[in-house]
Amino acid sequence: MKHTTNTAIQLYKKGRLAAAKEICESILEQDTDNDTALHLLGVIIMKHGVLNEAIEYMEKAIRLNPSNAEYFHNCSYGYRQQGELDKARQYLQQSIKLKSNYGESYQALAELTRYTKKNGLLGAIEQQLKKNFLFVKEASYFHFAAGKLYDGLGEYDRAFEHFSLGNKKSQIQFNLHEYEKKFKDIIYTYNYS
Q1: What class does CATH assign to 1-88?
Q2: Does the pLDDT at position 131 exceed 50?
Q3: Measuring CA to CA, how many Å separate 52 from each of 43, 70, 96?
C-alpha cells in the first residue's frame, strides 16, 4: 500500500501520532525531499519534546519550500521552547510576511513581544481586524493578540474588549491547563528575553 502525506496528516489530526510518524518515515525513505512529510515529522517529534531533531526536519522542509507560512510558524515553537526567542520572533515575522492574515502567528508573536506604541505590530493587527474573515477562529487569534498588547500598554479596558471578542469568536473551549502552560511560557519569555 502506498502511503501519502494526506493519510499521515489525517492520522495526525485524529491523534494517531505513531501511525502518522511511521507513514512520514516511509515516505521519506522513498523521497528524502518531501517537504510535507519532513514538516509533519518535525511537528510530531516536537510533541515528544525532541526539539533539535524536530527543528532539523522543519528547517529542511523550509529550505525545500520557503514560501510555506505554516512551516515557519511551527518551527518558531521549537525555537521558543529552546529559549531562542529572537529566532522564534524572526520565524513568526516571516510567517506573517508570507501569509498576512495568519492570526495564530500574530498571537504567538504578541506573546513574545514587549510592546511599545513605537512598534507597528498592534497597528498591523488592528488593520487585519478591519477585514472580513473567512474563518471565525482566525479572527479570535487577532483579538487575543490585540488584547495581550493592549494589556501590556496598560490599556486594560481595550484589552478586556479584545479578549471578550476573542472568546466570543473562538470555537475553542477554555482549557485551564493550557492557559497555565501558556502563562508559564510568557513568564519565561519575559524573564529571559
Answers
A1: mainly alpha
A2: yes
A3: 12, 19, 24
